[in-house]
Amino acid sequence: MKKNIYSILRGTFLVSDDSFKNWRMILFISVLAIVMIASSHSADKKVHEIARLSNEAKDLRSAFVDGRKTLSELKKESVVSVKMKKKGLKTSEVPPQKIKVKSKE
């Protein structure tokens, strides 16, 4: 047991005759660690992107509701008539009439 610990601390397990299998394992574990770190960073980026898009969607929804409210107020007849009075127009007293066109057939 002591001999294995001393060989690990001194690094002799990396330069001995059968060290090729040790280097393969170290290389494999290193590659796995790099893949795990890259995957973690990718997941973090996606989480941040989802949060940003969610906030942007909330802002756009709020702007849409505000615009719809403004539009519904501007479409009211009373608001339209006040704005037209400022421009010199007034509502007609005579109701509109339908024009019927008869075909020659």
Secondary-structure topology with pairs:
Layout (H helix, E strand, L loop, with lengths): L1 H9 L8 H56 L2 H10 L19
Descriptive account of the structure:
It is a single chain. The protein has 105 residues and is mostly helical. It is built from three helices and no strands. It is rod-shaped, with a radius of gyration of 39 Å. The model has no long low-confidence stretch (mean pLDDT 89).
Largest sheet: none
**What is the tally of helical segments?**
3
How far is the N terminus from the C terminus?
112 Å
Radius of gyration: 39 Å
Overall shape: rod-shaped
- Report strand %: under 5%
Element-by-element helix/strand order: HHH
Low-confidence stretches: none
Helix content estimate: over 70%
Mean pLDDT across all amino acids: 89
DSSP strand count: 0
Quaternary structure annotation: single chain
Structural class of the helices, strands and pairings?
mainly alpha
